[in-house]
């Protein structure tokens, strides 16, 4: 009984505070303001006061207590400790599709609506940054572009050290044939690759790729494996030691989805043993808290068969501007 009374009292206090705060101007805090789109700021200012200022994790709890809208990209992990028990925040805006950096249950419990790009399929057709980077990483890895450029900077000019492989005539296997998978398949076909597609859904366009019946078939046939799946409990460590053992020794892996899709310990073992030819990663497990001693980063420092970049897939001027303007309109509509 006492716990029920306490719960009712907390809900009442929360509702009272929110009702009281609604008569005040909406306060909107953008905590990752670097090169934030000016047009999006102008849209947001039609609904309230907008502040653009970076913050530390230690200050996030105070921010959620003081602002109606908190806008972030991928620089912070949002959990119960950050949200606090009774935040003022009503809307958490994040212009991405993957939400593994946010504790959605904790937000729902506190009445915080998370506004993102998840499910915005029609709009996202015009956002191509991650699809383009996927192909760019594959080419950079197979043609040894990064080590070749580093060698030139160090005064070396020896083309024979960097003999690579072409995309043309090879076979790519795309795991995850949603929007990005379909785009990447089209790009790779233009390079003259055979493209296989695997997705538990059976509704991806038949013209996008040759549909294979199982993940095992794709891994056996492809010499380039590309990960473009949504990250959740069902796809965590989708690619591990068993899957690496099913790949050809000349296979390269490209991951531009989420780091947790790959068992990173198994990945490093496969690269070190030579059972996997190479890997290019835009994402790592545990983002954004990635330090120099992270095992994958440490390995890449001394091995040219692993290329890692800091989640730059959607980080183009065009993609950022489109998504921030789109999301700003959604936030204004939600504030009503």
List the topology elements.
Elements: H1 2-21, E1 27-30, H2 38-44, E2 49-52, H3 57-66, E3 69-71, H4 80-83, E4 91-93, H5 104-109, E5 113-115, H6 121-124, H7 129-142, H8 145-153, E6 171-175, H9 179-190, E7 194-198, E8 210-211, H10 215-221, E9 224-227, H11 241-246, E10 252-255, H12 264-273, E11 278-281, H13 295-300, E12 306-308, H14 317-335
Parallel strand pairs: 1-2, 1-3, 3-4, 4-5, 6-7, 6-9, 7-8, 9-10, 10-11, 11-12
Helix pairs in contact: 2-14, 7-9
Offer a quick outline of the entry.
By secondary structure, the chain is α/β, with parallel strands linked by helices. It has 14 helices and twelve strands.
Describe the structure.
Helices cover 40% and strands 13% of the residues. The chain has 14 helices and twelve strands. A seven-stranded parallel sheet has the order 8-7-6-9-10-11-12, with helices on both faces. It has a five-stranded parallel sheet with strand order 2-1-3-4-5, with helices on both faces. 37% of the residues are buried. The model has no long low-confidence stretch (mean pLDDT 93).
Shape, please? globular
The radius of gyration over CA amounts to 23 Å
Number of domains: 2
Reading off the top of the CATH hierarchy, the class of the largest domain is best stated as Alpha Beta
Average pLDDT, all residues: 93
Key terms:
single chain, about 325 residues, alpha/beta, Rossmann fold, seven-stranded parallel β-sheet, five-stranded parallel β-sheet, 14 helices, about 15% strand, globular
